[in-house]
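agent: user wants the structure for Zinc metalloprotease from Flavobacterium granuli. delegating to structure tool.
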Amino acid sequence: MKGTFKLGKISGIGLFIHWTFSLLIAFIIFINYQSGYNAIQIFWSVGFIMSIFITVVLHELGHALAAKNFGITTKDITLLPIGGLARLERLPEKPSEELIVAIAGPMVNLGLALITGFFITLPENPELMATQLSGGINAHNFFLNFFIVNIVLAVFNLIPAFPMDGGRILRALLAFKFKRHVATKIAARIGQLLAVGFIILGFFSNPFLIFIGLFVIMGAQMETEYTESKYILKGYKVRDVLMKQYQSIDSNEPIKTAVDLLLDSQSKIFLITENGEPVGTLNRDQMILALSQKGENIPIHTAMNKNLIFLDVETLLEDIFEMVFSNKSNLMLVMENNQFIGTLDTENLLEFLLIKEVKTQKTYANE
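agent: tool returned. relaying tokens verbatim.
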């Protein structure tokens, strides 16, 4: 993700923080200052925000380590002002595995709340609770606030709606009886129904509920489309979508040659060759960057992407679905018996999906 800085590694997983996190810290300091808090009170407030994000990291680590047990690696964890994001190599599709991976995050929060509970005394009634929490974060209520936040995070994430963990837990439970794409559709509709409730409630109480409702509706729709696409691709192989006709350019040609081909054809990504052998790829963005920085006469090999991605012609499309879409700007090379036979890109896969979806709908309409 652009705009991130690496903090280090935990269990071999890269930990990154987005630059906008600093804006959140600055905002907290500003709000506390405007409220008339002194330096010590501001210190406790910033420290509390930091503790919450440590909690978020532990939550995401819970998912990552649970996934690791099933052979699924986590590419990285990124801290954002709105929370954390763990990028799994792929999502577990077996119901039992998805259930364990999804529930691991909220269980971390409940575990932290349980541990914190041993070191605090909970107020006997709501009035005492309100009194202890008044006046902002301080040394006396720091752990009480930490306890409450972890309970809230666990409950929030267990809401049965995508993209929260609860939506995946519900999908996993439904998938024990239904096919995965059907279970996803049911879970998504339940989540969207809850989201409508959030939006209506938000107009009469907290407007933030409107944001949550819209977030859930969009997340549920994206998850449904994603799962439906993978289901449509089931059984098909790279062989079924490879492109045997593609534009190639010699690596010693100037960038101008690629620009001319870009303007004279529908191709936006080109295969770069040297003595007839693939050595890289060149997309539109790389051309524009080269033109703006070095001009149109520099050789293509100085601007091309040399990191080639190879696919076996017999690989199932459902197994490489995530990889293809995470390399939207790349042209992938298809191999058969160690021989280069064609290419594949995201646009071609999307067109294949569209055609199969239309055919499937027509088949259902005729039944």
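agent: one observation worth passing along. The beta strands are 4-10, 13-18, 74-80, 83-88, 248-250, 269-274, 277-283, 310-312, 332-336, 339-344.
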